Amino acid sequence: MGEIVVPIDITQEEKSVLAIFSLRQFFIIAPVGFIMIAFVVWGDIPFLSGFIDFIIRFVLFLFVTGVAVLMAYFKLDKYEMYMSDYIIVSWKFYRSQKTYQSL
After folding, report:
1. What is the pLDDT of residue 1?
2. Residues 6+ apart with CB under 8 A from 44
3. Contacts of 65 (CB under 8 A, 6+ apart)
4. Are 27 and 84 in contact (CB under 8 A)?
5. What pLDDT, on a 0 to 100 scale, did the predictor assign at position 73?
6. pLDDT below 50 — which residues of the chain?
7. Domain map of the chain by residue range?
8. Global pTM value
9. Of 62, 43, 38, which is closest to residue 54 (Cα–Cα)?
C-alpha cells in the first residue's frame, strides 16, 4: 500500500494555552486583560463619580482590550506579519539610523 501524505501548514501558530491562544497571543492579551479588569474594579477617574465613572472605565476596558486582541489575532497578509510584529518592526525602522545618498 502507498503512503498518504497529509499536508501540514507550518505557517500557523500552535495553540498551546487552553487550545485558544498561542504563547505569543497569550502574553499579549493576558497582562492587558488582568490590568484592565483591575482598573474597572478598583480604578478611579479623577473628578468623576458614580455611574459615569464606571461607564468611562468600561469603555476604556473595551477599547484597550480590543486593541490587544487586534494586535494578537489580526494578520496583515500584505506583509505576512501579525499586527503586533508589524508595529514592532515599524517602530524599530522609525527609530533606526538612516543613511541618505544623493544621486
Report:
1. 64
2. 53
3. 29, 32, 33, 36
4. no
5. 87
6. none
7. 23-95
8. 0.71
9. 43
